[in-house]
Input
Amino acid sequence: MTYELYYWDGLQGRGEFVRLALEEAGAEYVEVARGDARDGLGTGAMMAVMDSKSEPCPPFAPPFLKDGDLLIAQTANILFYLGARHGLAPAVESLRYVVNGLQLTIADMVTEAHDTHHPLASNLYYEDQKDAAKVRAHDFIDHRIPKFMHYFERVLKQNPAGDTYLVGDALTYVDLSMFQLIDGLYYAFPRAMKTFPKHYPRLAALHDAVLERPRIDAYLDSDRRIAHNEACIFRHYPELDKDTR
Amino acid sequence: MTYELYYWDGLQGRGEFVRLALEEAGAEYVEVARGDARDGLGTGAMMAVMDSKSEPCPPFAPPFLKDGDLLIAQTANILFYLGARHGLAPAVESLRYVVNGLQLTIADMVTEAHDTHHPLASNLYYEDQKDAAKVRAHDFIDHRIPKFMHYFERVLKQNPAGDTYLVGDALTYVDLSMFQLIDGLYYAFPRAMKTFPKHYPRLAALHDAVLERPRIDAYLDSDRRIAHNEACIFRHYPELDKDTR
Output
């Protein structure tokens, strides 16, 4: 069965966390919003599902995934579903809740990364909230990146199965998501992230190890990978970045 | 087995979504941080778990739940775990993902409700970000409450099993969480919420129906329920509230 992935065309966004899992799994999927309207695809086809008056439980927002009749919304929820089906979750059921807890903590940080450029309202342009964005971005760099990353580094360090993966002794989807989070932060805040490998060597090694996985490497080189850009969660606005120790 | 629930003493916060599920389930649980240090409980006992250097995967933040050796972090994750074990999730497995997707959408709105009073930094006092808070709170009232609540009302309306519960034909934990979200908004924004039952009759009915459930009613009357207050996510700052149509 080919999955249908629904996410905005033109940006990595939260969809990217799902794409990385699908690519690592070698799963077949169609990106509905990036397809052609002549094939019944495109953004219109995505909006039709969202606006449907007959869908039993319509999604609030992309990304969402269709697997046959089942429509699954919310990034962490999609990954929870896919992980178990594609060997990207621990075999031990109880550890799947550990993975999901970490994934939701990544999701919290992703939301905070977004809010660095939109602290007052997602309805307003960045240009209309630049001063507030600078306050929030610098707080994010000074307090939130260290707090979250110190925590994730600790999770690697305390993993009883070794410090290569966040949970257990094999790759799970949360490792892919951690790569994407770090990768996005490198793009958005290159000055603040200069000292990242020094402070968080295990996380930096995890990031680099994911980059070298054959399927991820092939995906990142393909035109399926959309480049980082300023329509996304991770935006590079130099005035929000700063050096750190 | 008695669950151990870990959450900050003195506020409802995200812990309340878990408490409501435990109470409706009639499950036995201990509130670790609210207990006495002489019994090995209290906030110190909670911090000891968070700061533990031997915990296989320590939690980033409360709430977290211990069920024997298993430590589960993140509100939606705890509820996913409890729901299946206590008849508060659909019997059909695929619908559990639907419930989880809605729960995560509620979680997103809860974060936005928090950020109405802390748009610039959770490290700063409210008093130091009042102007920004007013902009964000009014955007929340004008745009985000309608967007989310119109959506949740639609979920009730389109539920093939009827409009009494969000998913299926029986109560699940996401209905309890929806009650709590609406209840918190009533507390924080009484002026903005005056027209809520007019615009969202199904959600208002769901809220009232949860209030009347015997175990919830008994819980809300007990001293286990902490009153709404300004240490919480849902804070009543009159200057952030406003009338709506």
